[in-house]
Backbone:
């Protein structure tokens, strides 16, 4: 790290020192990963999102007339039986015929068709339920996207905050090194004690320790983000230098959007529709089931003994079957009652989620507004702490204040920077939370 020679520090020169520390840490030669790029990578690569997409494809394939029982079933059949027996037959006129190792065989084959013509409208309810399963799968995919994008964005902006804190800590190390040099110069000319030099070196070591710990945390968080993006965990990059806050989020607008877009609420609404359709499927068992059957058969048989030694036939068979449940131990009544209770529970889940969602939005919005106020306050504190440090540095250089006052000003400034950065980060977290609850995160 470059050591800047200490001279009377104007605000301009002091800013140059801080920017130098920032640039040395951020490494602008690295890939700069934007939040938009992180979102795009997550949508393409994230494992949970990809699995949710596959589940939606499964639901889409299941929605068919065949799965609903609307289409006929056609089967091919083949039945070949053979036997070798010792036979003895006594006819009505007293004649006895017998044969050892008599061979008999019969062959039946053909096609048969069965078609449910009526099942109490169960097939239509099933078809509609499978359609709602697609809607549920689509909504579950949206929920997976929002949840994972929230995690990606939180991790991303955590990296931005850590990057800012790393730059601030790097700057304070630069200042501490200048302080050690100045203390050593003052000691060499007899204007300061060895204690002042030792104190400056201890503070420098403390600042370097904090810097290394922050650097480790920053590197580890980059690995976490790479994992969320399902790419090489060792991929190196830097993130945006600052966090931009959407300060135009209003609670009534968020509540209206949440009622239409919140994926968990929409899932409960769809589950209520599915519960009603399942009741219709169960209710259908009270009606008769009418099944039409037809088949075309080929039959051949051979017998070594008997009046007919060889026969064959082929032709069409058809018929209609009717099945009606008369009594099943009251299971039908119980099944319907259970289905109705499940409908009631699905309604309660909707009401509960609506209340929970409004409460979550209200709390998150209050936190959001507080964080916006804290940003302004901490920005002001940082500006004052910076000005105070510049004045203190000049006074310390000319030897009119003790070293502890200089250290206090230095710590006040670095803490003001960290608090300001943290306030912005918290506001961003509130923004992400509000948009996730409202179902309007970038899709």
Residues:
């Amino acid at each position: 790290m470059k050591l800047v020679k200490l001279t009377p520090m104007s605000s301009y020169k002091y800013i140059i020192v801080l920017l130098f520390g920032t640039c040395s840490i951020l490494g602008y030669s690295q890939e700069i990963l934007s939040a938009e790029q992180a979102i795009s990578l997550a949508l393409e690569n994230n494992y949970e999102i990809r699995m949710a997409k596959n589940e939606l494809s499964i639901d889409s394939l299941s929605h068919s007339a065949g799965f609903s029982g609307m289409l006929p079933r056609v089967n091919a059949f083949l039945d070949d039986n053979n036997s070798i027996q010792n036979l003895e037959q006594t006819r009505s006129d007293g004649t006895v015929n017998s044969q050892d190792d008599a061979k008999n065989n019969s062959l039946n084959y053909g096609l048969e068709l069965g078609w449910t013509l009526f099942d109490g409208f169960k097939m239509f309810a099933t078809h509609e339920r499978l359609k709602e399963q697609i809607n549920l799968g689509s909504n579950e995919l949206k929920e997976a996207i929002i949840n994972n994008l929230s995690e990606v964005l939180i991790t991303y902006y955590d990296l931005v905050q850590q990057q800012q804190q790393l730059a601030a800590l790097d700057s304070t190390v630069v200042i501490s090194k200048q302080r050690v040099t100045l203390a050593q110069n003052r000691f060499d000319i007899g204007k300061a004690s060895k204690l002042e030099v030792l104190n400056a070196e201890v503070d420098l070591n403390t600042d370097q320790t904090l810097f290394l710990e922050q650097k480790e945390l920053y590197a580890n968080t980059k690995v976490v983000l790479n994992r969320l993006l399902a790419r090489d965990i060792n991929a190196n990059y830097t993130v945006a230098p600052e966090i931009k806050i959407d300060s135009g989020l209003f609670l009534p607008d968020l509540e209206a959007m949440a009622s239409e877009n919140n994926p968990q609420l929409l899932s409960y609404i769809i589950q209520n529709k599915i519960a009603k359709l399942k009741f219709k499927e169960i209710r259908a068992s009270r009606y008769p089931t009418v099944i039409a059957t037809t088949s075309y058969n080929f039959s051949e048989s051979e017998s070594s003994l008997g009046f007919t030694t060889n026969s064959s036939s082929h032709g069409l068979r058809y018929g209609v079957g009717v099945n009606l449940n008369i009594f099943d131990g009251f299971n039908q009544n119980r099944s319907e009652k259970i289905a109705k209770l499940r409908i009631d529970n699905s309604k309660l889940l909707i009401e509960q989620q609506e209340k929970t969602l409004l409460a979550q939005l209200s709390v998150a919005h209050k936190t959001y507004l507080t964080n916006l106020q804290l940003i302004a306050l901490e920005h002001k504190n940082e500006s004052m702490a910076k000005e105070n440090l510049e004045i203190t540095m000049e006074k310390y250089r000319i030897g009119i204040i003790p070293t502890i006052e200089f250290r206090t000003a230095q710590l006040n400034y670095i803490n003001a920077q960290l608090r300001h950065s943290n306030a912005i980060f918290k506001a961003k977290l509130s923004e992400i939370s509000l948009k996730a609850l409202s179902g309007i995160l970038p899709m």
Summary: Residues 122-188 form the longest helix (67 residues). Residues 74-118+289-323 form a domain with the Outer membrane efflux proteins (OEP) fold (CATH 2.20.200). Strands lie at 32-33, 73-90, 96-118, 238-239, 289-303, 310-323. Residues 1-28 have pLDDT under 50 and may be disordered.
